[in-house]
Amino acid sequence: RLPHPRPADALLAAAAGGIVLGLGVARLTLAINPHLAARAADVALLHLELAVLYAVLALVPGLAGAAILALGRHAEAAPALRRGAGAALLAALATAPVVYLLLLPDAGLAPRALTWLIFAPPARRALALAAAAAGLLVLGLPLALGVARLARACRTTTRRSLAAVTLTLLAGAVLSALLRPPAEGRAKPPPPAELGSAPSPPPAPVVLLCIDGADLDDVILPLVEDGELPAFARLMRQGTWGSLATLEPTLSPVVWTTLITGKPPAEHGIRHFLFFRLPGIRQAIYAFPLHTGLNFRLFPLLEKLPFMPVLRTPFTSNLRRSAALWTIAGQRHPVGVYRWLLSWPAERVNGFYVAGAIGWVRFSDGARRAARGRLRGAATYPPELLQALPPAPRHAPTDAELRAYVGDRRPIDRHDPLLRPILHAFADPTSHELPLLIERFAPRFVAASFYPVDAFHHFYHAHRRRGGRFAGAIAERYRTTDARLGELLEVLGDDRNLIVTSDHGFDFDQGHHAHAPPGIFFARGPAFDAGRRVDGLSVYDVAPMVLHLLDMPLPDDMPGARSGRYRRALSDAFLSTHPVSRIASYEGLATADYEALESPEDERIRRALESLGYVQ
């Protein structure tokens, strides 16, 4: 016979489930961040803090359950029915967090189930949640009966049994993590590779541009067909082009780092926009399991508490664990880096380096001055690089120029938050600075961010779909990017190999890019055929392709180099005259120091990510 459930039992059951969820998330977090296992106190604190956090969060549905039980006492129903329904509710409250834990992508049982649910249309999501709740209630009754029988057999109460099991799990999880920490999973890097002398004649220069968020099928191809993107049309006529498969979850810093290293996130170490610090834990936490709420939802709320320190800090380039293309190519050739995403602070390279920040959040003149004042030389290498260039012409957009983005004839309010990415775009100095730097340093390889469009997608996708003042803003941004690209094509000439990529596209129906919509791939130059579409490339193929174009040995530990899939984009003539050489690894060139740096841009980056919907 089941005991009569009390409202307080709902709180106990929910908290117990929350503790189990917190312990599971802590274990998954350790697997993602094996460096935390180096300090026993960090391991214990991680488990305790997450267990307490999720237990407190679980009290929200627990309070709802307590209210239902309190109302049920006055319901006109048979006592046995009330006891059974109450027991099923308690079992559902206790097991729902456990089911959620098992469905987390990092748990590996159903990697896409939660992602599908979270990003499903509202009606479908509500139906799925209702079905899940009903299923938990149906399964909860036999579970509650089993627990009650077990408690009687042990000559104790159900409540005491639940508390004892929860405390045992808490102690066991911490002890297990201390006794069997996750493997580091990363061998000590080999010494720097011996490359030997550069081949003669030297390879054709390579320019790699990444247009953040550029979408092929929904934007570029329709606008090319309408004759509105002549530079992209030129690349399609004169070169090789297609889509570029990307990573999921689709987070720009992660993908950009894979583009420039050829390595998966688990190896290059960049997992998100921001990394995290928990009170009392000395080591930084570079990522939490996906869909736990920690990355996007919970920490912003916790940071608002008066006693809570800052918990989130943007990733910086010194946390990258794999060698970037500019480091590898710089062993033989002069190189250039221009505002590549996640390239702050500037690295010492064989050439020039202008640091970028997160996505379209760039170093403005004022922020650059602040960075030089607080962290001398962190924005560029050499430190006074940009001061040696002629100043960029300053241009405040006129209302007539803004009308191309703002469709109606109402007065333009320049303080309108929706106008922010447009005004910011007019201040982009790329078309002035990048050609001057290429001319001055004559680099054999350049990696550059180029007139990003992703912020326009995030701000204006609803206007594009439904109409409104900013319905044409996305198309106009692509026209501007295309115009600047056409100017750069004239500067570069025909003897360079140019690769234009993006980290991902955009799902305009859903208003996000969480499901890895493919990016773009356009290539023109001596190594590419004209007028050819290529399919099947991914972000893992860009780095080995660049190395092959530069006649550099391909490393065996680079996935795209092992598969050789990138070769389908290169012309037969190039492949026949440029054989592949091999090397074990370039990882001995990586310079990660694992120490987080503070930047004058940190708070600005957090605010910008919030405005784009990446963090809350």
Description:
The protein has helices spanning 7-32, 40-72, 79-103, 113-118, 122-153, 158-179, 216-225, 230-238, 252-261, 265-268, 294-302, 325-329, 365-374, 399-402, 420-426, 430-441, 454-466, 473-492, 542-549, 559-563, 572-577, 602-612; strands at 206-210, 240-244, 274-276, 312-314, 335-338, 351-354, 380-381, 445-449, 497-501, 519-524, 532-533, 554-555, 582-583. With 616 residues, the chain is of the alpha/beta class. The chain has a nine-stranded mixed β-sheet with strand order 7-6-5-8-1-9-10-2-11.
Task: Give the helices and strands, then pairings.
Layout lengths: L6 H26 L7 H33 L6 H25 L9 H6 L3 H32 L4 H22 L26 E5 L5 H10 L4 H9 L1 E5 L7 H10 L3 H4 L5 E3 L17 H9 L9 E3 L10 H5 L5 E4 L12 E4 L10 H10 L5 E2 L17 H4 L17 H7 L3 H12 L3 E5 L4 H13 L6 H20 L4 E5 L17 E6 L7 E2 L8 H8 L4 E2 L3 H5 L8 H6 L4 E2 L18 H11 L4
Parallel strand pairs: 1-8, 1-9, 2-11, 5-6, 5-8, 12-13
Antiparallel strand pairs: 2-10, 3-4, 6-7, 9-10
Helix pairs in contact: 1-2, 1-3, 1-6, 2-3, 2-6, 3-5, 5-6
What is the number of domains? 2
- According to CATH, the homologous superfamily of the largest domain is Alkaline Phosphatase, subunit A
The global form is globular
Beta strands, count: 13
